[in-house]
Amino acid sequence: MMDFEVTTSDSFVQSSGFSTTSTTSRPQSVNNIPGDTTSCSSADIQEMVMSVFWRGGFLGAACYCFETSQIHILADIRDEMPDFKILQCLFRQIQPSRVITSGTLSFNFIKKVKQLVLGEETVASEELPMTDKLHFQPSKVFVYDNCVRRILVMDLGCAPEDLSPEDRPSYIRSLVDLSQERSVCALGGLLSFLDKSLARLTLGAYECNILAVKYLSLDNILWMDTDTLMNLQIFAPKDHPSSFKWSWNRSKEGFSIFGLFNQCASKLGTRRMRTLMSQPTKDRYVIESRLEVIKFCLESRHAPVVKNIRENISHVQCVSKILTHLKNGLATVNHWLLLHKVLTNAIGIAEFCHAHQASGYYFQQIGSCLDNVLYIIAQSISRIMDKESSLLEERFIVSEGICEELDRRKVHAQKVCTVTSQVAQREIESLPPYVESCRIIYVPEIGYLLTIKQWKEKLTQEEMNFPGLEFKSSMNVLEIPRCLF
């Protein structure tokens, strides 16, 4: 599209820092530039990156979850080759999307890792396929001293705000046992990989914030081999029949115990159930606590309450991506509305559990999460954000009465838009009939301009001159929301 700009003979009062456009056509029309219509969607899978390190018969591992922004560490544990039963159990429980290790470790260990990541048939073939699931880091990345230095300087979101640089190493030492050589090397390799490969892994959707550091406990886990797990048919994933549609995170659950029991109302609940069934516990107290919840939900007198809480749960999802967009100033209207919706339903779930905390341990645990901060955030979004105007204009609009200065500027901006629309209507009447529309724009460095769309190709200089108007320029432009012309 070719546009050329001319300034009107009328004088306008310029408002510094203000930008506006008004378009008038035959008949009169005002074109609003659309805003960002990026939709907010929840991830279908849980992104997990795991680093494993084995030496001298002991295994150490560390994994990072992008959705919860938590690091989980497996302390040094004996795992004998060639079976590597602990490693197999770890892969089955974590189900990592990407695995990091050192290529200089034991041949048997590397072979086992390849089998767990790529499959036994793939490893048996002569040529290994190109994949982004398995990454080999240089051996210097896993050097113990280098890993300790990297761990002591990692940025922790869970650290106290008043923590001084001198006290930071002591605080990190209280979270990470640096005497566990294998787990320290695994954690150091994980941090190095995240620092170098975060943008490629997440495509800008996540941010590497470490909100917590936790240790994986294997004390009360019921151990079972792969054959037992398959024969019990706890999980029965079925790949897509079309090979070109195959993906590591896309499979349909077949006839299995998980498929029969999965009545979850949210994706987060489905993931949690899969985790629980892949990590069967021997702790009797945990099993009895889960049975208390099941018994409560199966009682007929609680049916209306259970229906309401299922409705709340169906609207709860992970907000890590939304918080990253908010922090970087990239949040859209849909992000704000989704955050408010999640907060409102999460508060409803916590209030329900708080009211029934005498019914079981998990009700007490969830009810204790009810915090005034959640109420403040939800009420602030509801009070400050004008939802109808924000959806209409596709940008965050502050409600009236929040800030007097902002209200005054809004009134002034509305008046300017009204004036420019009237001026555009007046100018279109004085222009020749072949000019179908015109637009009033404001450029802070130039001033107010009248733009007219080119009505034919190869206009001459004489054809672009109009009585009472001064020709400024003609240019090729792309008409997108973020452009002024």
TrEMBL record:
<dbReference type="GO" id="GO:0005634">
    <property type="term" value="C:nucleus"/>
</dbReference>
<feature type="compositionally biased region" description="Polar residues">
    <location>
        <begin position="26"/>
        <end position="35"/>
    </location>
</feature>
<dbReference type="GO" id="GO:0140664">
    <property type="term" value="F:ATP-dependent DNA damage sensor activity"/>
</dbReference>
<protein>
    <submittedName>
        <fullName>MutS protein homolog 5</fullName>
    </submittedName>
</protein>
<dbReference type="GO" id="GO:0030983">
    <property type="term" value="F:mismatched DNA binding"/>
</dbReference>
<feature type="domain" description="DNA mismatch repair protein MutS core">
    <location>
        <begin position="227"/>
        <end position="408"/>
    </location>
</feature>
<feature type="compositionally biased region" description="Low complexity">
    <location>
        <begin position="15"/>
        <end position="25"/>
    </location>
</feature>
<dbReference type="GO" id="GO:0051026">
    <property type="term" value="P:chiasma assembly"/>
</dbReference>
<dbReference type="GO" id="GO:0005524">
    <property type="term" value="F:ATP binding"/>
</dbReference>
<feature type="compositionally biased region" description="Polar residues">
    <location>
        <begin position="1"/>
        <end position="14"/>
    </location>
</feature>
<dbReference type="InterPro" id="IPR036187">
    <property type="entry name" value="DNA_mismatch_repair_MutS_sf"/>
</dbReference>
<comment type="similarity">
    <text>Belongs to the DNA mismatch repair MutS family.</text>
</comment>
<dbReference type="GO" id="GO:0006298">
    <property type="term" value="P:mismatch repair"/>
</dbReference>
<dbReference type="Pfam" id="PF05192">
    <property type="entry name" value="MutS_III"/>
</dbReference>
<feature type="region of interest" description="Disordered">
    <location>
        <begin position="1"/>
        <end position="35"/>
    </location>
</feature>
<dbReference type="InterPro" id="IPR045076">
    <property type="entry name" value="MutS"/>
</dbReference>
<dbReference type="InterPro" id="IPR007696">
    <property type="entry name" value="DNA_mismatch_repair_MutS_core"/>
</dbReference>
